[in-house]
Amino acid sequence: MPKYRAPGRVNLIGDHTDYNEGFVLPLALDLACVVDARPTEDGRIRLRSEDVPGEVDLAADGRDLASSEGWGRYAAGVAKVLSQRGREPVGLEGTVSSSVPVGAGLSSSAALEVALALALCDAAGFEPETLELARACQEAEQVATGVPCGIMDQLASLAGRRDHALLLDCRSLETTPIRLPPGLAVVVVHSGVARALAGSAYAERRAACEAAAARLGLRSLRHATPAQVADEPRARHVVSENARVLAAADALARGELDALGPLLSASHASLRDDFEVSTPELDALVRALEEAGALGARLTGAGFGGCAVALARAAEAEQVAAAACGTYATSTGREPQSWICAAADGAGKIDS
Ligand code: ADP
Ligand code: MG
Q1: In sequence order, which residues have a C-beta less than 8 Å from that of residue 159 and are 6 or more positions away?
Q2: Per DSSP, what are the bridge partners of residue 35?
Q3: How far is the CA of 72 from the centre of ligand 1 (A)?
Q4: Over the chain, what is the mean pLDDT?
Q5: Which residues are catalytic?
Q6: CA dihedral in degrees (140, 143, 145, 150; nearest 10)?
Q7: How confident is the model at residue 1 (pLDDT cuts 50, 70, 90)?
């Protein structure tokens, strides 16, 4: 049976900027969702997941979205948006399995959407372009969850490049791969606290950004200057974060590791104080990573719980992760989990 692999992602810097037509700097992870499935003759999508309970059995045109539950909503959402774009309703039968931790902020949901979309497109001989597929999967996430998410997760999963981070311009959707210097390690630590209230708070933040742009007569906060948003904390975060993403991309491209840390730490402070999406646990985890010798650290994946990301010198990464996890577990009583991550290629078919 053919298999379709789509990676999760970790965002090095640039949170809550994608839906403001701004910049983000994610990398596709060597953790991925794999859909192992073959076309069916009866127009049904039948899937089970090795990770999440609940068998999925729905019409291949996505008409069952309203009555779908759990992860079936993602499958129905993907089927629906592809059908609207002209995919013939060919069914699919098989299994989903993922090494992306679910609900951690590493985008297991986008990995699922993209892997399913590739499987469904292949089954029907439907070949959308990469950017169109990213937009379709973003829309699938929106209709499945009701959360008005940006395009970062789906685009990163599709456009990933081994050993590279991706500078994404979320207005033009231009992707610039930037090689990760060999001496640099990406450390991801789960705080051991699931993301809570993320959907409603996310929508509230997005609405606040759009209102701020409208007050300024701008199409999006991408176009605002620091002076225009000096007294508006939410908008101030977006504008300052865009500048940090570009500075970080530049430092990464030049291999200037010492310049990266302060940018990550400033990003965390802005997300905590101006955008108010951090939690006491994420603050403690970021502090522990910095004290353990990381170059810099920040919450990642929109906040409200989930993971922090840190950059460290490769030779010190294991030690930084272990020490930070120890300190964090002692101070909070939570159970952290850490990964030293490699940057992987974007989604594709892996077997036939
Ligand atoms: P994140 O994307 O940060 O991991 P989300 O809450 O956005 O967290 O997405 C998690 C949801 O995605 C799960 O609750 C489940 O519905 C779906 N999902 C992700 N991976 C799988 C999988 N392997 N099998 C079934 N459903 C999955
Ligand atoms: Mg998600």
Answers
A1: 28, 130, 134, 166, 168, 175, 346
A2: 4, 96
A3: 10
A4: 96
A5: 153
A6: 60
A7: confident
Tokens of 61: 């045109």
Per DSSP, the three-state class of 337 is strand
**How much distance in Å is there from the Cα of 79 to the middle of ligand 2?**
18
Give per-residue pLDDT as tens, 38-92.
Answer: 999 999 999 999 999 999 999 999 999 999 999 999 999 999 999 999 999 999 9
Residue type, 24: V
Distance CA 240, CA 258 (A): 20
For residues 167 and 159, the answer to whether their CB atoms sit within 8 Å is: no
Which atom from ligand 1 is nearest to the alpha carbon of 106? 3
Nearest CA to ligand 1 atom 18: 109
* Centroid of ligand 2 to alpha carbon of 227 (angstroms): 33
pLDDT number for residue 35: 98
317-332 helix and 280-291 helix, angle to the nearest 10 degrees: 140
Comparing CA positions, the residue from 309, 331, 333, 330 lying closest to residue 321 is 309
Q: Is the pLDDT of residue 352 over 70?
A: no
In angstroms, the CA 260 to CA 249 distance is: 9
Strands 44-49 and 91-98: parallel
